[in-house]
Specification:
single chain; 6-stranded antiparallel β-sheet; 5-stranded mixed β-sheet; about 15% strand
Length: about 650
């Protein structure tokens, strides 16, 4: 993939990433050699590499004979040597007689350090020991955890000697420092702050990565968690905190734990850097190489152990390869303008350079001093803080994105609600308009029905009155003429019946919703209703001897009774059929019933005969509205309806109403 032309800001970042870390490391090395107070300007000597000295007297003889190497700084690195380190120095002159001074020894990973002072007779005298493997009683007294007290004592000369016992699998490197009490206290505070900040940053990153993983369910944050966990483990091992908590493990455990923690740190750093800086995009082979190197430290250490060398040799070789490879690729990604490389490329490259600087010093390629010990830790603090800031930024970005999404969804819901409300309002207005149009059409229809019913009723009434007049004549009428007159009477009765039906239907539509009730005497009212059927011989009325009063709408009740009588007339037998209308009294209600002598109502239909659009006629005629109107009138008056069989055949439909 061709490189894009970088912007000027990218060139500045690339220049900082390429030049700033080496310049800072060079400045730290120069300060180790030439900086500091007057107490720091003294010469350190070391026995040559490979010289095995077992006693302090033999080491002192080498020193007096000049068979030692002057060191550029106040430390020496011999790599993974099997020979103990012997360091000699002449104490600088006291600027303030009687002031307390200390000889500090580092790094904290050292297992056993013996301190000797040469007396005036030229004999080395053991003063104490410090280190991970030093038992507590031997480490007490004049020896501290990492400092020896340099008290003014006229019995001793200015010559001091330090023996660093090399354990298998651990680095042969050490630094010495002669400090005042104030400098010693400042160094202890610095070391404590550094370790505290490192572990706190790693712990916070672990907690933040776990929270992000639980929130987003993205597997990317597993690499963040691995980096934090392995970083904490490496720091605890390197600073000797594990052995201080469990001293029974001994130096041999430290010799194996150190390569293990280093291997885990290399692997997680490599995998994390490959993903975080998108190194896979540089060229397809890069990701595969980094994955191989990430899994290679432990196999390389085991291979080194099998061929007879120290485990840490193989691990260190992979570390150099991983650091060099990732450092170059980070610069390439910075040149390409990758997002994380632009923000954190300088810090990442500084960490790579500081790690290489540290291992170059402990292997003896460059002078070893306090800067080699601490600069990579400060760079690790910087990268942890940068990554913690990245996690914080991502968390805030995720929250802001979710808030924006929530606001957008809320806006969409509000908009949809407004649209829905508008559509409902429009639909309501349309329904209201349709209802008004339908009501107007129904009004016109009722008006037309009322007009038609009155127009039918007037000629029918005239025809009937004429026929009644003809029947009162005394003159005989021919049989054929009488038959025609009877047909005319039947036709006029039918016409009157239909007209009454139309009027009843119209009044039902007007009055069924709001009944206009009043006290009603049923015997008198029934006699009036039966006048509509005075010409129908098949309808007979049976009344109780006493009058009874109900509260009802006479118009609706009349409509219901008409429907019951018409239904009975339609079902009674053709030959001499009789329809009986009865009024029966009870203590709490009255019962209006209409009985016919027809075929009756089948048992399954008795439960549904009063439902709308259910017709009980076997011929299929009728619309099934009459009996449903009867049931509606009864409910409006707080009553009930029902049907029962009549022996030997027929049906009796009844309607019960509460008494007034």
């Amino acid at each position: 993939m061709p490189l894009k032309a970088p912007r000027p800001a990218v060139w500045w970042r690339l220049l900082l990433a390429a030049l700033l870390p080496p310049l800072l490391l060079a400045f730290a090395a120069w300060r180790d050699h030439a900086g500091g107070s007057d107490l720091a300007r003294w010469q350190l000597y070391a026995l040559p590499p490979g010289v095995a000295v077992k006693s302090p007297e033999q080491a002192l003889a080498y020193y007096r004979a000049g068979n030692v190497e002057p060191q550029l700084g106040h430390g020496v690195g011999r790599g993974y040597s099997t020979v103990d380190l012997w360091l000699m120095a002449e104490l600088p002159r006291q600027t303030a007689p009687g002031a307390l001074r200390f000889l500090s020894v580092g790094p904290p990973l050292l297992q056993w350090v013996d301190f000797y002072r040469v007396d005036l007779a030229g004999q080395p005298v053991w003063q104490g020991a410090v280190g991970m493997a030093v038992p507590s009683p031997a480490g007490s007294g004049q020896a501290g955890s990492s400092h020896f007290v340099l008290a003014d004592d006229p019995r001793f000369s200015s010559t001091v000697m330090v023996r660093v016992r090399i354990q298998p699998g651990l680095l042969g490197a050490a630094t010495l420092g002669i400090k005042s009490a104030l400098e010693r206290d400042a160094e202890l505070r610095r070391d404590g702050v550094l370790l505290g900040v490192l572990t706190t940053a790693a712990a916070l990153m672990l907690i933040a990565a776990m929270a992000m993983l639980a929130t987003t369910r993205e597997q990317e944050f597993l690499s963040w968690m691995g980096l934090a966990v392995c970083g904490l483990f490496y720091l605890l091992i390197w600073n000797g905190l594990v052995l201080r908590v469990s001293p029974q493990w001994g130096p041999q455990a430290q010799a194996w734990l150190h390569p293990l923690s280093t291997s885990l740190m290399i692997g997680t750093l490599g995998l994390f850097s490959s993903h975080f800086f998108a190194l896979r995009e540089v060229f397809p082979l890069a990701h595969r190489v980094i994955r191989v190197l990430a899994w290679a430290p432990l196999p390389a250490g085991l291979l080194a152990w099998l061929v007879g060398v120290k485990v840490i040799y193989g691990v260190t070789i992979i570390l150099w390869m991983m650091a060099s490879f990732c450092g170059v690729l980070i610069l390439v990604q910075l040149l390409r303008g990758q997002g994380n490389a632009r923000r954190y490329g300088v810090v990442g490259h500084a960490l790579v350079c500081s790690i290489l600087y540290y291992y170059a010093a402990v292997m003896g390629f460059i002078p070893f001093g306090p800067s080699n010990i601490y600069v990579w830790q400060w760079m690790l603090v910087a990268i942890y803080m940068a990554l913690l800031g990245e996690l914080t930024w991502r968390t805030l970005a995720e929250r802001q994105a979710s808030e924006r999404e929530r606001a957008m969804l809320h806006g969409l819901l509000v908009h949809e609600a407004e649209q829905l409300e508008q559509r409902v309002q429009e639909r309501t207005e349309a329904l209201q308009l349709a209802h008004e149009e339908l009501s107007e059409a129904e009004a016109h229809q009722r008006e037309l029905l009322s007009l038609a019913s009155h127009e039918f009723r007037m000629p029918a009434a005239k025809i009937r009155s004429t026929l009644d007049a003809l029947r009162d004549l005394n003159e005989p009428i021919a049989l054929d003429v009488q038959d025609r007159l009877d047909n005319l009477r039947t036709a006029s009765d039918r016409l009157m019946f239909l007209a009454n039906k139309l009027i009843t239907h119209d009044r039902w539509r007007e009055l069924s919703i709001k009944p206009q009730t009043r006290p009603l005497w049923l015997r008198e009212w029934l006699a009036e209703v039966m006048q509509d059927y005075e010409t129908v011989a098949a309808v007979v009325l049976a009344l109780p001897p006493s009058e009874v009063q109900v509260t009802a709408d006479p118009v609706l009740l009349r409509i219901a009774l008409h429907n019951l009588i018409d239904n009975a007339l339609g079902h009674c037998s053709k030959a001499a059929g009789v329809v009986q209308v009865s009024l029966m009294l009870a203590s709490e209600h009255v019962e209006l019933s209409v009985q016919d002598d027809g075929p009756g109502v089948p048992e399954p239909q008795k439960r549904t005969v009063f439902n709308r659009y259910v017709s009980g006629r076997a011929s299929g005629q009728g619309h099934g509205l009459g009996l449903s109107i009867v049931a509606s009138v009864a409910r409006l008056h707080g009553g009930q309806t029902g049907v029962a069989d009549v022996q030997p055949h027929g049906a009796r439909f009844w309607m019960r109403l509460p008494r007034a």
